């Protein structure tokens, strides 16, 4: 029996993970599940899977969670500290699928156990890449990618020497607005940005796909995960979402990873690694698909994408600034305080302010400094939004 914990169990990745685990319940001993405001879903899954512990992020929902778990043997807890504590409970495989920088602290705790962390939460590497990699190394923990592009790169690297890699190409569907006239983007609504042409995901990452903030995070994630240089990373728009990534080698060969757009492939690969086991995903029928298209991304349409290289050039805590500013700008967009295109402008302005802030830019990467930077960047976005409104 493998002991598993799932952080962000009630979300899109969390539910797909539970789907896979539920198919072979006798193989898994579920330690902890965590969620947010959806107490009923969290409690139901915790009961059904016989988890030791269920934790909600919301402290004021502890009584609701306790009530929902009455009569079961599942322990209830609440709050960010309780989530971090849950990550210290011994487990062999831990899924990191909280959305946003809130996934960082429990991810670090999980790595300190020296177990395997399946990383869907890309923000962990964007905010604190070197700290995370060092923690993994110091505790002999293993990080496995769950983001589909990174899982694809990881698979295209099997048996190869990383020094033979010339370039890494990750694909992007182009999101909800890939075929919209440019002049209409300024009026794009939250509802329109929240529907993805190919993937079924949580709302925040779906909007980030439309703006390509998601791809920008993934470019930085690629750099941190595989230690390639920024100039070795390329993005290709590929509307069919069949080729997830490609690795180009020094002899000119390109290994592409293909598959149906279903996150259960990448989750299942990380769950069973280094083996391959049967997974309930559609098989590719390339004859039926007929053709696959690729084109270079238009940086005018996707100003957020270019920011990834600006962030990598800055290094240090710039990733934490970028991610926090992006999260806050997204909050403002969802609350309809700023327009779709304002998000990239606001984040770029915050990065410039970061350059000008003495001390901060050279601060060492500690968890405290990442948290402080995160907090400050969110405040700076609020300042820009207020300025614009005024
Ligand atoms: P989601 O919004 O569907 O679920 C997020 C989960 O995190 C929920 O369980 C929610 O309760 C929890 N959560 C939210 N805020 C929290 C907080 N402050 N503290 C603790 N828990 C909190 O998101 P998702 O689409 O499943 O994405 C999860 C992560 O996986 C993100 O980092 C995303 O970028 C990444 N990812 C998702 C997909 C996908 O297909 N959905 C693909 C690749 C990567
Ligand atoms: Mg992805």
Helix fraction by DSSP (H/I, runs of at least 4):
40-55%
DSSP helical segment count: 16
The CATH topology of the largest domain turns out to be: Rossmann fold
Low-confidence stretches: none
List bound small molecules.
Answer: nicotinamide-adenine-dinucleotide, magnesium ion
Sequence-ordered SSE layout with sheet pairings:
Blueprint: E1 2-7, H1 12-22, E2 28-35, H2 39-49, E3 53-56, H3 62-68, E4 75-78, H4 80-86, E5 93-96, H5 104-112, E6 116-119, H6 123-138, E7 142-145, H7 148-156, E8 165-172, H8 190-193, H9 203-211, H10 213-226, E9 233-237, E10 243-249, E11 254-258, H11 263-272, H12 286-289, H13 303-314, H14 318-334, H15 342-356, H16 367-389
Parallel strand pairs: 1-2, 1-5, 2-3, 3-4, 5-6, 6-7, 8-9
Antiparallel strand pairs: 8-10, 10-11
Q: Would you kindly provide a written description of the structure presented here, covering whatever features stand out?
A:
With 390 residues, the protein is of the alpha/beta class. The protein has three domains: 2-145, 3-Layer(aba) Sandwich (Rossmann fold); 151-289, no CATH class; 315-389, Rna Polymerase Sigma Factor, Chain: A, CATH 1.10.1740. It is 46% helix and 15% strand. The protein is built from 16 helices and eleven strands. The chain has helices spanning 12-22, 39-49, 62-68, 80-86, 104-112, 123-138, 148-156, 190-193, 203-211, 213-226, 263-272, 286-289, 303-314, 318-334, 342-356, 367-389; strands at residues 2-7, 28-35, 53-56, 75-78, 93-96, 116-119, 142-145, 165-172, 233-237, 243-249, 254-258. A seven-stranded parallel beta sheet has the order 4-3-2-1-5-6-7, sandwiched between helices. Strands 9-8-10-11 form a four-stranded mixed beta sheet, with helices on one face. Strand 6 (116-119), helix 6 and strand 7 (142-145) form a beta-alpha-beta unit. Helix 1 (12-22) packs across helix 11 (263-272), helix 4 packs parallel to helix 5 (104-112) and helix 13 (303-314) runs parallel beside helix 15. The longest helix has 23 residues, at 367-389. It is globular. It starts with a strand and ends with a helix. 47% of the residues are buried. The mean pLDDT is 96. The structure holds nicotinamide-adenine-dinucleotide (NAD) and magnesium ion. Magnesium ion (MG) is lined by residues 147-149, 218.
């Amino acid at each position: 029996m493998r002991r598993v914990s799932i952080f962000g169990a009630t979300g899109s990745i969390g539910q797909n993970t539970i789907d896979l685990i539920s198919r072979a319940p006798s193989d898994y001993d579920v330690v902890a599940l965590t969620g947010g405001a959806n107490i009923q879903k969290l409690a139901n899954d915790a009961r059904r899977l016989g988890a030791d512990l269920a934790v909600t992020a919301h402290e004021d929902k502890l009584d609701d969670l306790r009530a929902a778990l009455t009569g079961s043997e599942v322990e209830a807890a609440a709050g960010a500290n309780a989530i971090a504590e849950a990550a210290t409970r011994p487990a062999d495989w831990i899924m990191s699928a909280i959305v946003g920088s809130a996934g960082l602290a429990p991810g670090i705790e999980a790595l300190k156990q020296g177990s395997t962390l399946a990383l869907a939460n890309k923000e962990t590497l964007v905010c604190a890449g070197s700290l995370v990699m060092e923690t993994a190394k110091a505790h002999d923990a293993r990080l496995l990618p769950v983001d589909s592009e990174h899982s694809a790169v990881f698979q295209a690297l099997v048996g190869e020497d990383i020094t033979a890699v010339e370039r890494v190409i990750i694909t992007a569907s182009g999101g909800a607005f890939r075929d919209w006239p440019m002049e209409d983007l300024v009026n794009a609504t939250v509802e329109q940005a929240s529907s993805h042409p190919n993937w079924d995901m949580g709302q925040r990452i779906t909007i980030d796909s439309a703006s390509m903030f998601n791809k920008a995070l993934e470019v930085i994630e690629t750099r941190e995960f595989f230690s390639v240089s920024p100039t070795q990373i390329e993005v290709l728009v590929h509307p069919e979402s069949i080729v997830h990534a490609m690795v180009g080698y020094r002899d000119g060969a390109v290994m592409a990873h293909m598959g149906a757009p279903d996150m259960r492939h990448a989750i299942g690969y990380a769950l069973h690694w280094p083996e391959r086991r049967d997974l309930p995903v559609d098989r590719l029928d390339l004859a039926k698909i007929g053709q696959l298209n690729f084109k270079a991304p238009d940086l005018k349409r996707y100003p957020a994408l270019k920011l990834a290289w600006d962030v990598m050039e800055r290094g240090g805590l710039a990733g934490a600034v970028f991610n926090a500013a992006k999260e806050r700008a997204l909050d403002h967009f969802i609350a309809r305080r700023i327009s779709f295109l304002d998000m990239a402008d606001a984040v770029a302005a915050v990065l410039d302010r970061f350059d000008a802030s003495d001390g901060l830019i050279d601060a060492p990467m500690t968890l405290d400094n990442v948290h402080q930077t995160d907090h400050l960047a969110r405040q700076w976005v609020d300042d820009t939004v207020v300025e614009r409104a005024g």
